[in-house]
Amino acid sequence: MSEAIKPKTTNAKPQTNTWYSSWFDTPYYHILYKDRNYREAQLFMDNLTHYLNLPEKAKVLDLACGKGRHAIYLNQLGFDVVGADLSENSIAEASKNSNDTLRFVVHDKREPYDEKFDAIFNLFTSFGYFENREDDIKTLVAIKESLTEYGFAVIDFMNSQVVIDNLIQEETKEVDGITFHIKRFVKDSFIIKEIDFEDKGEKFHFTEKVRAYTLEDFQTMMNETGIYLLDTFGDYKLKKFHKNTSERLIMIFK
After folding, report:
1. Sorting pLDDT into bands at 50, 70 and 90, what band is 231?
2. Are 95 and 82 spatial neighbours (Cβ–Cβ below 8 Å)?
3. pLDDT tens sequence across 178-227
4. How far apart are CA 99 and CA 81, in angstroms?
């Protein structure tokens, strides 16, 4: 990789043997989820940036950006964007889209960023991965400390109650000739997904594990950290949040 496109590393911790550092850094994660709705993601960014009334060329941080699908579109809307993720492979791929107003860095979201942003987006349930609640608290504090005085932050999380109520316990999904066997269950306040498959004669096993935070849980953590929850929405069209029916839990705070 040339120096011209080599992604920057900032405040990155060593990759430990956690489910997210191994699963997100493998190409199989992107194969399994290759059919995500990009148009829906773009409409969400349209609605969100309009609601926040972000100024022209506002500085935006896409925190836990993956391969950068949201960051790239936000940049196309005219914003100065940084995409940050712990996965070196994802950042290397995202960095192919870099330009003067779009940068990608390897970064641990528990650490405050070394710049201030007008908006920080943590999207597509990229929160609640850590074993210890204190690490999620650190993430919230880091987001707060990385905002400008008039900046806003957004967490787009699953609606845990609806996910649990409609949990598909077992599922088989074939993508690109690979058959993924998926099991889902709830244990110790986490929603867990076990993923097994075989490719090129080798067997693989990965886990996704997300803490089943509710709106009340987030409100408690935000109160502990001096964060002000300004609004909540229940889907990407920014309709009102309903605990028992909404698809998402989208929170605007500062």
Report:
1. very high
2. no
3. 999 999 999 999 999 999 999 999 999 999 999 999 999 999 999 999 99
4. 10
Question: Phi/psi at 229 (nearest 5 deg)?
Answer: -80, 115
- The tokens for 163 are 């996910």
Strands 202-211 and 229-233: unpaired
Spatial distance between the Cα atoms of 250 and 155, rounded to a whole number of angstroms = 6
Rounded to two decimals, what is the model's pTM?
0.90
Residue 105 has a pLDDT of: 98
On whether the CB atoms of residues 226 and 144 are closer than 8 A, the answer is yes
Q: How far apart are CA 181 and CA 227, in angstroms?
A: 40
| Cα distances (angstroms) measured from residue 175 to each of 32, 48, 118, 193, 204 | 6, 31, 38, 17, 15
